[in-house]
What does this fold into?
Amino acid sequence: MRLLQTTVPRAIGLILFAGLFVAACLYHFREAEGFAAMLPDFVPLRLELVYATGILELILAILLLIPATRRRAGNWTAIYLVLIFPANIYAAFYGIPAPGQTETSQTALWIRLLFQPLLIWWVIWASRPAPGQRS
It folds into this structure.
């Protein structure tokens, strides 16, 4: 897969991950109030922060698809996913429904937390060259 300068499985992983982040970006704008509710009241400019993170997700998605920026974008995406994890913990702890939902089961909110490490692994794996391949 010359276009993305990686192996086919990693290219598929990159495309799927980037698509997920583009969808997340759009969802941040569509359900901004729901995302803002996932942040504690003491956080200033919650709605603006939701819009900024939506734009950041779009930028990261694009940078992941560019071979010259892929590895660094993978690192920044992993860091971003770690930084937003407390919002998911807060939502689970206080039973705040997923954005766009009027209610979400408490179990689903806690199970959602298990997917964050998987997303971090996915982006790190997909953004790295395969063993034996030049970076």
User: Anything to note?
Assistant: Residues 60 and 73 are 6 Å apart (CA to CA).
